[in-house]
Design a protein that fits this description.
The chain is mostly helical.
Length: 450
């Protein structure tokens, strides 16, 4: 029995000896030299004290949890750190994230920090973002600092402030704008006109009237925008005066656009008069107004101006007027366009106008256009003659159908002759078919005779 237990003890001592040999320093972690961490690192517990710091942790999951914590619990202890970081943060996405967190805090607890942000003259983007978040509180207390922003040197900042103030509609703002509108400083008057675009109230009607007479043309231009947006019919007499007599061409043009916007057709003579203004912007606005109102009495003036016009954009509108009114107004303008206009697109459009208007003068223009150097003009002329019944039109179309060097033109002429439903047109097409060698044209002519 003694030997049995002695043997077991010897085995155990041998095993112990082996372990001591392998790990001479005692009980050493067997994973220590393998680079494997045998312990699991515990995530820090998010608290009021560390939540904001953890928002920037490298562990994205932990940072997300910290953000959620801040949004839900809004720990007051973190308010100073949050607003300080807003002032210094350069990363736009991080900046917006922190701003969202700040906006969750009750205004009464964070107001002094928001007020501090509103007073900072930082970048445009910074100020606009702060204005939008600041305004979300919607309380009367924010109106003063918001109103201060309508004097910002940045247009986008002023506009952002006005957009938010428009929602609040607080009388405190009106006194600010009113004092700016009456200022001797033209810049302040300009800023006031920009603000009134959003903040107009009927109490400002007399101020708007005075602004239409301001020496600064930019103030007058913005005032016209106010009148357009709010449809101030009571001031239409001032708009007419500006359209007729303002010394600045931009204001004259804007005044005419305002009359169009207001659908005020009581001063169409002004549009006719301005058709021949020396400035193309004014002429364009005048032509556009006549087109909008379809002012028939202006058609002869339109034709005369088309004959003299040098600006292609204005020519385009003047031709549109002839088309809409279906009147050539003496045809001097269209005649010049068809016969000598260098812009092929405008010649095509003038030929089309002649076809729409019809009559003997138009027919003569179309027949002459069958000889134009541009195949598109000739094709449009052929199409325009489809409703004619004269011998001259028939002969011109037969010549085009049989001899033109462009199948596009020939096809247009064939269809025009088909539309005439005339015996002579049919016999003429039959004669052309007999001598036709082009397979495609044979088919087109043959189909037209069925």
């Amino acid at each position: 029995m003694f030997l049995k237990y002695s043997y077991k003890a010897a085995v155990l001592l041998y095993i112990l000896f082996i372990c001591i040999s392998l790990f001479p320093q005692g009980a050493v972690n067997p994973y220590e030299d393998s680079g494997i961490d045998s312990s699991v690192e515990q995530k820090p517990v998010i608290t009021d004290e560390n939540a904001f710091d953890l928002l920037f942790d490298k562990d994205m999951n932990l940072a997300q949890e910290a953000e959620t914590y801040l949004l839900l619990h809004t720990p007051e202890i973190q308010i100073p750190a949050i607003f300080q970081r807003i002032k210094t943060e350069k990363d736009r996405l991080v900046f917006e994230k922190i701003l969202d967190i700040a906006a969750r805090y009750p205004f009464e607890k964070s107001r002094k920090y928001w007020d501090d942000l509103m007073r900072i003259e930082a970048s445009e983007d910074f100020q606009i973002s702060v204005i939008q978040k600041y305004s979300s509180f919607g309380s009367r207390e924010i109106v003063y600092l918001l109103s201060e922003k309508i004097e910002s040197p940045y247009f986008s900042v002023r506009e952002a402030a006005c957009v938010e103030l428009e929602k609040l509609r607080n009388d405190r703002t009106f006194s600010k704008v009113f004092s700016m509108a009456l200022s001797d400083n033209p810049v302040k008057r300009l800023y006031a006109s920009q603000a009134l675009y959003y903040l107009y109230d009927k109490r400002f009607i007399s101020v708007i009237g005075d602004m239409m007479k301001d020496k600064n043309k930019s103030v007058r231009l913005y005032t016209l925008r106010i009148i357009r947006k709010h449809n101030l019919e009571d001031l239409s007499f001032l708009v007419k005066a500006a359209a007729q007599n303002d010394e600045n061409f931009e204001v004259k043009a804007a005044a005419m656009r305002t009359l169009v916007s207001m659908k005020n057709n009581s001063a169409l003579y002004i549009f006719t008069r301005n058709l021949s203004d020396e400035m193309p912007e004014v002429r364009y606005a005048a032509a556009d107004g006549i087109l909008f109102f379809r002012y028939k009495n202006a058609v002869f003036s339109v034709s005369k101006q088309l004959e003299a016009e040098t600006d292609d954009n204005i020519k385009n509108v003047l031709i549109d007027i002839h088309i809409k009114l279906k009147n050539g107004g003496g045809f001097s303008g269209l005649k010049k366009m068809v016969e000598s206009e260098t812009n092929a697109y405008l010649r095509i459009k003038a030929v089309y106008a002649a076809g729409v208007i019809g009559g003997s003068v138009s027919e003569n223009l179309l027949i002459s256009a069958l000889n134009d150097g541009d195949f598109r003009v000739r094709a449009e002329a052929a199409a325009g003659l489809s409703s004619s019944r004269s011998r001259q039109a028939l002969e011109g179309l037969l010549a085009a159908a049989g001899k033109d060097r462009s199948n596009y033109v020939r096809t247009a002429a064939v269809y025009a002759l088909q539309n005439m439903k005339n015996r002579d047109a049919v016999s003429g097409l039959e004669e052309i078919l007999k001598n036709e060698n082009d397979i495609l044209m044979k088919k087109i002519i043959s189909d037209s005779l069925k």
